[in-house]
Design a protein that fits this description.
By secondary structure, this protein is of the alpha+beta class. The protein contains three helices and three strands, in the order αααβββ. 42% of the residues lie in helices and 23% in strands. Strands 1-2-3 form a three-stranded antiparallel beta sheet. Strand 2 and strand 3 form a beta hairpin.
């Protein structure tokens, strides 16, 4: 299978796949911005918060059923 470009998928296609935020970050960003975004996601996950896909190239971060932030790439 050829390399899948998650960022180019439509809303409907992304909804079916629910890509991980790390995959989109690696695909869309580069250099220092990519490293910073990956570090931020790792920090969120170390606090036992998992980014959940919510919209095309966007994820919600929740803690104890309360919204903490939204990440859009």
């Amino acid at each position: 299978m050829s390399e899948l470009k998650f960022s180019a998928l439509s809303f409907k296609e992304q909804k079916a796949l629910k890509p991980k935020i790390e995959d989109i970050i690696l695909e869309c960003l580069d250099g220092e911005m990519q490293n910073t975004a990956l570090d931020f996601v790792a920090y969120i996950q170390s606090l036992k918060m998992t980014p959940r896909w919510s919209n095309r190239n966007a994820w919600d971060v929740r803690y104890k059923n309360r919204g903490v932030c939204k990440i859009a790439v």
